[in-house]
Every structure is written in structure tokens, then in C-alpha cells.
């Protein structure tokens, strides 16, 4: 049942994001920034973590989950290091995910030989 909940939750988040892009004049980059900021705000309000615990990967994989991860890392770093935690917390909490995206993207470019659109 966890897989079904994760699939439906992640699909709903992505579907709502797609509707926002289709029905408004917001560019995809702005929608992505809104999702990250929304995840951070909901995390700060204490709403997102219980939702993520219930929905598992359906809530942590989309960009809104990335915003929550950034907030959680900053909160922990601020508690440990004070004001400087604002600058290091987000990087520390997301380093593995961002590094994996870079490495797998690079490997994917070897396999699929991407070309620039003209």
C-alpha cells in the first residue's frame, strides 16, 4: 500500500504543478522555485514532515520535498552553529542528492549522446 500512496501523492503533486504551468503564464522555472519555497515554508510551519512521513517518496522526491529538505538542514545547522548555519545547512542536507544527480546525469550523457537543439 505504501507504493500506491507514494505513486498517487507524487502524481498529484506533479499533476497540480503541470496544471499551474498550463493554466497560468508562469514559466516552468518559476513554478519550480515556487515548489521549493512552498516546501520550505510548509516545513517551517511543521506541516510537511508529517505529510512526508505518510506519503514517503511521493512527497520527498518532488521539488516540494527538496524545499523541505533544505529547510530541515538549515534548521539543524542553525541549532548547531548559529547564524552561519543559514549558509551551510542547505548544502549539507542536499549534497548527496545533488551530487547523485550530477553524476548520473553525466553518465547518462555518455550513454545517450545528447545534442544541442538549434
Give descriptors for this structure.
6 helices
- Biggest β-sheet strands, sense, barrel: none
Class by SSE composition: mainly alpha
As for the number of domains, it is 1
Can you tell me the overall shape? Answer: globular
Strand content: under 5%
Q: How many distinct helices?
A: 6
SSE arrangement, N to C: HHHHHH
Rounded to an integer in angstroms, the radius of gyration calculated over CA atoms is 16 Å
Which whole number gives the mean pLDDT? 91
Question: What is the rounded distance between the termini?
Answer: 45 Å
Q: Share of helix among residues? A: over 70%
What is the tally of beta strands? 0
Point out poorly predicted stretches.
Answer: none
Overview of the molecule:
This protein has 6 helices and no strands. The protein has helices at 2-23, 28-44, 48-55, 57-60, 63-81, 85-112. Helix 2 crosses helix 5 (63-81) and helix 5 (63-81) packs antiparallel against helix 6 (85-112). With 118 residues, the protein is mostly helical. The mean pLDDT is 91. The chain has one domain. The termini are far apart.
List the helices and strands and how they pair.
Elements: H1 2-23, H2 28-44, H3 48-55, H4 57-60, H5 63-81, H6 85-112
Helix pairs in contact: 2-5, 5-6
